[in-house]
What we know:
Elements: E1 14-17, E2 30-35, H1 44-52, E3 58-61, H2 78-93, E4 96-100, H3 108-119, E5 123-127, H4 135-145, E6 149-150, H5 153-168, H6 170-174
Parallel strand pairs: 1-3, 2-3, 2-4, 4-5, 5-6
Amino acid sequence: MSSTIPPNIPPKATTIQAPTPLTSITQTPTIFLSGYISHPDACWRNHLTTALSHLPITILNPLRRDWDSTWKNSPSDPKFVEQTSWELECLERADLVVVNFGSLTSAPISLMEMGFALGMKKRVVVCCPEGYYYRGNVQVMCGRLGYEVFEGFEEFVGAVVRSMEGLVGKDALEE
C-alpha cells in the first residue's frame, strides 16, 4: 500500500475518532471509513487518511483506541452500544461512505454497514479484493444498484480521493 501525500500541501483534513461526539464536526464534506480491522494490512485507514489530508474534509474513523475485546456484543453493554450507535450516526451523516473488505477476512460488520449505506442511497466507494469471503455477494449487490467495486487498493484510493474532491468543489481545491 503506497498512498502518496500531495507535495507541499499542508494537511487540511480533520479526523474524528470513535467515540468522539459528532458535534465536533467543523467542516464538510464528511467521509466514513468502514472496513476490516483484523488483518496484517489493517493500517489501510492511515494510508487513505494521508491521501485525503490535502482536502478540507472531516474523516470519521470508527477505529477506537480504547477498544476492549471483553465488551459484550449486546445491547446490555454500554460501551458496545456507544460504539455501534456512533458508527450508525456516522453512516447516516456521512457524505461518502467507503468500505474496504480485506482478502482473507469475513468482515461481517463492514458487510452490514455497506448494505445500510447502499439502502440509504449514499455515495459509496467499495474495495473488495479477490479472496474476500463474500466477494460475490458484494459484487452482485453493488452491480444491481449501480455501484462500482474496486479490486485493488490503489484504484480504490484514487476513486475515493476523486469523489471527495468532487464533493469539496473546485474553489476549495484552489485555496
